[in-house]
Amino acid sequence: MLNYLLLAVTIVSSVFACAVARNDFSKKCTSHAGDLYAFNTASAFLSLATLAIISLFKKELCVPGAYTVWMGAAYGLATAVFTLLNMMALQTGPLSYTNTIVFCAMVIPALSGMVLYGEPVTAGQYGGVALMLLSFVFAMDKKNDTRAMSFRWLALCLGAFLFNGAVGVLQKVHQNSPQKGQLGMFLLIAFAVYAVFSAVLTLIYLRVKKAPLTALRPELRRKSVVCVLMSGVGIGVCNQINTYLAGAMDSIVFFPLVNGVAIFITLIIGLVVWKEKFTKKQWIGLIAGALSIVLLCGLF
Questions:
Q1: Could you give the number of structural domains in the chain?
Q2: pTM of the model
Q3: 66-88 pLDDT, tens digit each
């Protein structure tokens, strides 16, 4: 029961941090790449502070082992690249379809549990994976939005897909290692690397391009601050819970659930808030996705 309560918290955190905050900032507060770099820098440092408070509260601060250090560094770099590609895709593409492709990366860590650790997968769960992939194909049917089919947008989505999948695999691998008790240090190292990486990109861009940050304009400051707060705190909480659950639950259940439910909440937000339209195929995709989540939970 505790695992599923934590799962609900991480889904909500993921949706509002990854979908709402990043989408709003990407579309309304940016005019060049430096704005994205600066947003990621501020968000990463805020996530780092959030994780540090959690680690202090849980008394998880310690001298990390070498394995935790280099795994944390790899996790931080993967997270930094994934976040950047995701936000670049959101600049030019619709929220619902961008995140549908990006969150589809759950298939990579979900099946990694079977390959790396021999986790059992039932026939129903195989069917759930297939049904969810089918739902993504139907969800991509966006005939009246040419932005959704641009080559640049698709390339950015596929890049984010791969790095998001790598993030999930690294979570799973670390939390199945002898140093899984160093979860707090693993995440602190990861987000320190993420924050420094993003800060260096920001400084280089601003020095070379000499372009002022759009997000600092008086009319955009409040929105920028709100987006950074939502993203920073949300991603910090989300990563703390996600990484724990990656080791505590079977991959074939955890990753499809947390990403699958987030996808459909994001689709609803896109429909209600950003007025994105769905075709008949997309509605069929939503129903197929809901059924796939039931199958992936191992209820049948």
A1: 1
A2: 0.82
A3: 999 999 999 999 999 999 999 99
